[in-house]
Input
Amino acid sequence: MSNNLEVIILAAGLGTRMKSATVKVLHRAAGRPIINYVVDLASQVSDKLPIVVVGHQREAVQKWLGDRARYAVQEEQLGTGHAVLQAAQVLGKAGGRKILILSGDVPLTRPETLQHLIEEHERSGNALTLLTMRLANPAMYGRIVRDSKGAVTRIVEAKEATQEEKKIGEVNAGIYLFDGDQLFDNLRRLSSKNAQGEYYLTDVLGILRKSGKRVGAVVVDDPVEALGVNSRAELATVESEIQRRVVEKLMAEGVTFRNPATVVIDSLVTIGPDTVIYPFVTLEGATKIGRGCVLDPGVHLHNVTVGDNVHLKSGTVAEDAVIEDEATVGPYAHLRPGTQLGKHVKVGNFVETKKAVFGDGAKASHLSYIGDAEVGADANIGAGTITCNYDGVNKHKTIIEDGVFIGSDTQLVAPVRIGRGAYVGAGSTITKDVPPDSLALSRVPQKVIEGWATRRREEFKKKKK
Ligand code: UD1
Ligand code: CA
Output
């Protein structure tokens, strides 16, 4: 890592082609705004905070990045050259330093590629070394013009290019490494007399060449590294590339994917070895999965911490929850924020939980709502049990102590506490605390009328005649 390297990230543009109310660099790919990938990249090659040039929605961008960057403001978007010049306020005299320029909308560059660019710049003694790529369809990218000896002489923007120049397949990736003393003075010499009336950063190359300075290019092998996000279609391409990298990394770490093309996994998710991920699993936010787990089809987790050897069955949906080792959840369970399941817990089909803490070995196997509750270790909650936590105004807590047995179809009207080891008979509506080791029942006593059905059938027969 070079101490002598400053990084400028251009992020002042709105991104008109995104057709969005949100500034382009805050659009998300694999769960994070694209600018985050660029800031991460900067931190991998320089130990100084990058300078982000902000303009459109600059409060939102600055609020999001906070102290992960320094900021320069470009009040009016007069072009990429003008944008870089705004960083001079923050940098002061740049002489003696190297300046790396990245675009806030180019998130897929690998740190090794930048490292290579830095090495090449130092080896060659260039005033400017830039990253280029070869594209079958160079579209809107700036074309790299080389002379008969192969030296880069200038960059011509697509909008200015002649028919001949448009055929050039080598294009500007928008990533530049400058010697500090060659940058700001030359930016002040730029003119905006061009098709877009903008100060093009790319014109500095021609200026440097004319004053006899050396300019070089490093051609990146994989053009995806320089893919810019200018439209929703490009955002989708970037997202799928990040997904591909995430899954590839996880597989290298020992995770099995039954069908990797179908999963959606945010870039910060971690998964332990020997975990098996079935198709159509979505893992978002800061989700962490342990080792030896099985995630069946259709599991959807957001900010969930999962221990080891956990089985999440089909259709389990969880958010802001913790699931400890050896637990089993689902199929079709819904763990809402504040759910914590201890070791060996079983939460079965059509069970919904919210702010519910289950002790080790507790079970709610079928069709329950457990909200604002503490469930003790090894407690067993019968099918159809409901914690009535809401009185129309306030939420109240249900406490079920260790080893409690709640019979099926019970309503626990909170606030209420079921003491350790107690039983609640099936079909009860519990409105008062139950002492430990007792049995609570609230059903209407059963009545049996013998012969009633026989008599009724006989009455029916008579009527039919
Ligand atoms: C630019 C290059 C082009 C290159 C391409 C690679 C110029 C003139 N052209 O074109 O040669 O092939 O990138 O992706 O540089 N920005 C500002 N302030 C401005 C204008 C732009 O901060 O006044 C920022 C944008 O927010 C964006 C970046 O600079 O993050 C690039 O701008 P964009 O308009 O996308 O440039 P391209 O047309 O893609
Ligand atoms: Ca762009």
DSSP finds ten helices and 37 strands in the chain. The mean pLDDT is 96. The first helix runs from residue 34 to 45.
